[in-house]
Specification:
heterodimer; A: about 90 residues; mainly alpha; B: about 280 residues; 8-stranded mixed β-sheet; 10 strands
């Protein structure tokens, strides 16, 4: 199942200017997206496993790159899901 | 009429550019040699235009609009917008070939395909890594996007049929034009999912065997069964299947296959011997 607004957020953050704004302060960017409370909480908590169930995996990988999570940490968390999220 | 002058396939992957310094010298050499050989063969074909089939990695399309197939018909296309790719790729724009693109589009519509259309496409790393590393930009390009990224995907057999249609379109294109086709992507890789980083070499070798055997029906059956079971990046093999269809399912020649963990892709490079077309 895809969450449109979560995918939209991750898609939009491919713009370097928007990514910089996001890194400077997530809340004001997140306020512009109609995210369900549990989805927003998962974004704020860097909950890789939960977000992986809602978003395209390429966008998920890209998002955590932009958000500043080290590659090793992202790999550890995504591999821990053990699921299929395509 | 135009002439089909070459059919090619090549892998791509962001880390080939973004983390090139971390690729071992042995693997750098394998990739450089393979891309150079691909470039040598493309240059030897003296192409007037190259049709490149690649996925869109979320630069043109989003969940708001996600075509299964899109043909770029514009006079000009934009180069990559990925910051790490922009640093390396020397062209901000690339020439299209609108006459060929429109002929392909019309042939597709007459053949039971209804592709989406773009008059100005952003060509991301899927298009531009082969162009850059093989040293063949700025060749006039007809970009064709296959949705290999987000389900539902075009069926493998339809991708093969698209290739057959493309061959007919090139053969019926008025004018003296030498046209090549490049399928970009694959082989196995896994992005943003639990198996991320896994390269499934056995699967890749089975794919290569199928391409070499030239039984298109068996290839399509194999991939239809296996693609849902392997890493998501292998979906891009659809672009190789289309290239195979262009070549009539015959003449596959592997240039190189190397599983390269540093770029997390089973990297394959191939051409098709068009003298063996049926």
């Amino acid at each position: 199942m895809r969450d449109y607004w979560l995918n939209k957020l991750f898609f939009d953050l491919q713009d370097p200017a928007k990514a910089a704004e996001y890194r400077a302060g997530r809340a004001q960017v997140l306020d512009r997206y109609t995210l369900k409370p549990e989805v927003r909480a998962a974004v704020e908590a860097d909950d890789v496993g939960y977000l992986a169930t809602l978003v395209n995996p390429y966008l998920l990988r890209f998002y955590f790159l932009v958000a500043g999570m080290p590659d090793d940490e992202f790999l550890r968390r995504i591999r821990a899901t053990g699921g299929v999220n395509g | 009429m135009a002439e089909l002058a070459g059919v090619y396939a090549a892998s791509h992957g962001p880390l080939i550019i973004r983390k090139w310094a971390q690729v071992t010298p042995e693997h750098q050499q394998a990739l450089n040699t393979a891309f150079a050989e691909l470039g040598r063969r493309i240059k030897a074909a003296r192409l007037d235009a190259l049709v490149i089939i690649s996925p869109d990695h979320w630069v043109n399309f989003s969940l708001a609009h996600l075509p299964s197939i899109c043909v770029g018909v514009g006079e000009i296309h934009d180069g990559p917008n990925e910051p790490w790719m922009m640093q390396e790729f020397p062209h901000q724009t690339l020439p299209g070939h609108p006459q060929l693109a429109h002929h392909i589009l019309e042939t597709a519509l007459e053949s039971g395909f209804e592709p989406s259309v773009s008059h100005r496409m952003i060509l991301d790393h899927g298009f531009c890594i082969p162009l850059l590393k093989a040293g063949i930009a700025p060749l006039p390009i007809v970009p064709v996007v296959f949705n290999d990224i987000e389900p539902p995907f075009p069926s493998v057999s339809r991708c093969y049929a698209w290739g057959e249609m493309l061959s007919r379109a090139i053969a019926s294109m008025p004018g003296q034009l030498r046209v090549g086709v490049l399928g970009s992507g694959g082989l196995s890789h896994s992005i943003g999912e639990a198996t991320m980083g896994l390269i499934e070499e056995d699967f890749d070798h089975e794919c290569i065997d199928h391409f070499q055997r030239g039984d298109a029906q068996a290839l399509c059956k194999f991939l239809t069964q296996r693609l849902p079971q392997v890493g998501n990046g292998a979906s891009e093999i659809r672009n190789w299947v289309a290239a195979h269809g262009v070549a009539g399912g015959r003449g596959f020649e592997l240039i190189n296959y190397s599983a390269i963990p540093e770029v997390i892709v089973g990297c394959g490079f191939a051409t098709w011997d068009l003298g063996k077309r049926t």
